[in-house]
Design brief:
The structure is a single chain. The strands form four sheets. The chain has a seven-stranded mixed beta sheet with strand order 4-10-9-8-7-5-6, sandwiched between helices. The mean pLDDT is 95. The chain is of the alpha/beta class and 413 residues long. It is built from 15 helices and 15 strands. It has two domains: 139 residues, Alpha-Beta Complex (Aspartate Aminotransferase, domain 1), CATH 3.90.1150; 246 residues, 3-Layer(aba) Sandwich (Aspartate Aminotransferase, domain 2), CATH 3.40.640.
Length: 413
């Protein structure tokens, strides 16, 4: 069969390029010391930044939600699947962002991927004129795959034009905005870039959006729950206020459970509700999840949430001060995402294997997730990690680097 033979040939190509991915199965809760394929490892790869995924309060809330609402929602939101649990969660999420977005309203989604597809495709359809050039979407060069796919789908549906911009070069972005005659312009960016760990210049991007009558979509998947005094995300951290902002937050990372939300000015959110196909045609998330997320929001904004954020940032500071390599590149990041650039795919895989043998779980990240030649380890911290554990990881990585360098010298000597 042609397809079968072709699939095998393509898999062989992935193997030759050190790009084939493989699943590792856990047999434990999401925690910093999971049981992985029967081996107890110290995990520095989860996005559970506040350590809430196995929190007893959330476990109890999820069980209580299931007891009250059952196991499933039964239908899409616009048919019969919209529960009071969903409604209460959306109101709570809108309240959190209301200081930054006037007349805030929120929509809850099954996943962040669906939320991003929905926001971009729906808002790109605001312009009724389908002639090419009536809408321009400005997409960050290092945006997450879900944002990229959302832009591609919007272009296919609306004939919008696309401009890729570098968030390190806003002068170029402004030059392009200034020359753009499109009636509808949308800037799309991550808040915290998931592979580099740096923050997008949202303050400057919002200033450009105000100046050139542009919407600004911010995917704050890795910022919600972590950034800001109350954990409300990048808008709180930067004290930004505008009706042009479309804020997207993920609830399966720092919030510890599942799902995502879009928050924006109520008229824009109502339009997304009417036009977003992933929202209209997807079965609603089980109400028990929404019920448990209300407890997660309470934890994030509580004194305990603040303590967990402080612990997380203490660990980040130790890492940045003490993790010194002789040849590997440690990126400067003030977030829970701390990449180590190794370059070659095979080197990244080899180092990940050495870490596994030493009792650590830090997978190799390779193209197309990151650009060619920038394969890396993506170290992530959780508030559940300890100072002793972080320093032990630092020591282990330094020993592995010396071992890898020694093997290279022996090979070329």
């Amino acid at each position: 069969m042609y397809a079968l033979n072709k699939a095998q040939a393509r898999l062989t190509e992935l193997d030759q390029d050190f790009l084939r991915r493989s699943l590792r199965t856990t047999d434990s809760p999401c925690e910093t010391s999971p049981l992985v394929n029967g081996q107890r490892l110290k995990a520095f790869c989860s996005n559970d930044y506040l350590g809430l995924a196995n929190h007893p309060d959330l476990i109890a809330a999820l069980a209580a939600g299931a007891k009250r609402y059952g196991a499933g929602s039964g239908a899409s939101h616009l048919i019969s699947g919209h529960s009071i649990a969903h409604e209460n969660l959306e109101r709570a999420l809108a309240t959190l962002q209301a200081p930054y977005i006037p007349h805030a309203k929120a929509l809850f989604f099954c996943t962040g991927y669906l939320a991003n597809l929905s926001a971009i495709t729906a808002l790109a359809s605001l312009e009724n004129d389908s002639a090419k050039g009536s809408t321009t979407i400005y997409s960050g060069k290092l945006n997450h795959a879900s944002l990229i796919d959302g832009v591609r789908l919007a272009v296919a549906q609306t004939k919008a034009s696309t401009v890729i911009f570098d968030h390190h070069d806003l002068l170029d972005l402004e030059h392009k905005l200034k020359l753009d005659s499109a009636t509808l312009k949308i800037i799309v960016t991550d808040g915290v870039f998931s592979m580099d760990g740096d923050l997008a210049p949202i303050t400057e991007l919002l200033a450009l959006a105000e100046r050139y009558d542009t919407l600004l979509i911010v995917d704050d998947a890795h910022g919600f729950g972590v950034l800001g005094e109350e954990g409300c995300g990048i808008l709180e951290a930067l004290d930004l206020h505008s009706q042009r902002l479309i804020y997207i937050g993920t609830l399966g990372k720092a919030a510890g459970i599942s799902g995502a939300f879009i928050c924006g000015e109520s008229t824009l959110i109502e339009f997304i509700l009417q036009k977003a196909r992933p929202y209209i045609y997807s079965t609603a998330t089980p109400p028990a999840i929404a019920h448990a997320l209300l407890s997660s929001l309470q934890l994030i904004t509580s004194a305990e949430g603040k303590q967990r954020r402080q612990q997380l940032y203490n660990l980040i500071a130790i890492w940045q001060a003490e993790m010194v390599f002789s040849s590997w590149e440690k990126m400067s990041s003030n977030t829970a995402i701390q990449p180590i650039i190794l370059g070659e795919n095979r080197v990244a895989l080899a180092v990940a294997q050495l870490l596994s043998e030493a009792g650590y779980w830090i997978p190799a990240i390779r193209p197309p997730t990151v650009p060619n030649g920038s394969a890396r380890l993506r170290v992530t911290f959780s508030a559940s990690h300890t100072v002793v554990e972080v320093r032990a990881l630092i020591s282990t990585l330094q020993q592995i680097e010396l071992k890898v360098l020694a093997s290279k010298e022996k090979l070329h000597g």
